[in-house]
Amino acid sequence: MSEPTVPEMLGPASVVAEPVVTEAAPESGRLNRGAVAWSIFEGGRDPSVILITIYIFMPYVSATLVGDPVRGQELIARYAQYAGWIVMLTGPLLGAALDRLGPRKPGLGLIVAAMVPLTALLWWSKPDGTGLTVAMTMTVTLMISVLFAWSEVFHNAMLVRAAGLKNVHTASGLALSLGNAASVAALGFTAWAFALPGKVDWWWVPAQPLFGFDAAAHEPERVVAWLAAGLLALGALPLFLFTPDTPRTGTPLLRAFREGAGDIARMIGAVRKQRDAVVYLAARMFFYDGMNGVLFFFGVLAAGVMGWGPLDLLITGIILSVVAAVGGQVGRWLDHSVGPRNALMIEIGMTIVSLVALLGMRPDTILYFWHWDPAAHGVLWDGPVYRTLPDLLYLLIGFNNAIFITAQYASSRTALTRLTPPDQTGAFFGVYALSGVATAWLAPGLVSLVTRMTHSQQWGFASIVFLLAVGLAGLAFVRGGRAEVAATGGNA
Description:
The structure is a single chain. By secondary structure, the protein is mainly alpha-helical. The chain has helices at 14-17, 33-45, 47-55, 57-65, 69-101, 105-121, 134-156, 159-163, 168-195, 219-222, 224-242, 253-271, 275-305, 310-338, 340-359, 374-377, 389-419, 425-438, 442-454, 457-462, 464-475; strands at 365-366, 370-371. Strands 1-2 form a two-stranded antiparallel ribbon.
């Protein structure tokens, strides 16, 4: 469930400066193999977010490796905050310098060469303490998070050359679809091969986990590290073989970074006169980070508060990844019906509602006040997951998150196009990318701080409401983007 990558993360200068080579990037029609290979890379990279960050590995770290869900959530949030600081300080400058340097493949190759073994290394985060310690595990995940962000900068900076300006959205949409499809397939395989065996007697499920994996040693959770590493390596191969790279410019490294910093300063200066766009971008820094925080900590909260195990989280990941596809259509419909600014306000408001609802759910409590006694009420069915009403309602609340958070990703780009002068689109989308990383540390930082202060997962998670509320309030001061733009163009 990742945000569409274009044109947001092309890098501050790439949006307007990347040359298009006709023989490598057709102006219209079907995608060539270089563009398809570019999309396949995202299909191989995105499953690591689903498998490692959201649904499987991090909940395992919190509930099992740390052994205390509250302390686990605080620790995970703290290291995510550190990663956010590093990305904030390096990502925009890296993106701006790339256009000065030229080729992207050498740098991206080094990043992938580091990410694959680091991701696979997480297999040795053993619950008995004989492998990686908790501190070592969190350090490795921090490094992976930073490298993942850098890979996005390099990868997205190759898009225009790979697909051509007129095919950018087609390639980006294919990449998003491949990422979602690969994530669902990886979750499904993990559930079939490792989580369901021994728990159900369905004819199509193996009787025991494949390869003799031991559930008591939490090998079914740890194996997603190998799976994510393998998918990344396979997904990267076509890109390095078939996607065209940018010619070398001959600009020295230090000069490229120095001039890139100047590009960022000029880009920010160019957008300062557009009041509504500036207010919108400031509001987005808060609600965008809040939305990402909801996704990041959803599985950790479910493991710690609801007591969900790997099978519950695997099935939830599959279902919500499929449901998220509806979110893109919801965002498009809301944009058309009420305008992207109002669409964003609806999407953020609905996310706040579902977030408040999640905080009122426990295995024995529904929405704060309704006590649920499984002994008295019984189970809903004799299956392996969602056996009680609180479990089922928690999943249904997740539906709301999946739909409206995905819709927000779509509406946020559309809103900027309604507020941006046509001749300054590149600069505004550069600042849009910059604003996406400027506060990447804020949600993890808040969750870490409030969890540590209150000794409560729920209160730590609740701090994200503040970010969403600030972003929602900021949108109220944006005058444009309220109605559908006429065919002739212009701000609404």
